[in-house]
Amino acid sequence: MWTRQHKKSKTGILIVPAITIAFLSYFGFHAWHGQYGINSKYQLEDRLAVLAAELDRVRSQRLTMERRVQLLKDGSLERDMLDQQARYMLDLARPEEVVILLDTPSAR
Description:
Blueprint: H1 11-33, H2 38-72, H3 79-90
């Protein structure tokens, strides 16, 4: 016949819940803060919005430049555009002209 000489400890009951809590805490933390977590998703969406705005700005600049280049192409060369570019590149102006300098390079 078997007899137990020691009392049953209550720490054995807490092992499974402690491991479960540790497991859920670890994966919960990484689900929120990890490389592919929820927080990273929000950061990527913010970056996407910033880059989309920059892409729109660059596209509009490109279209503006393409229009200006189209005016300088052979066959459709406009004298005013050629005169403007020559004066800008050579820093020349006629004596009766007034020159207004702007800080923004896109105002050319």
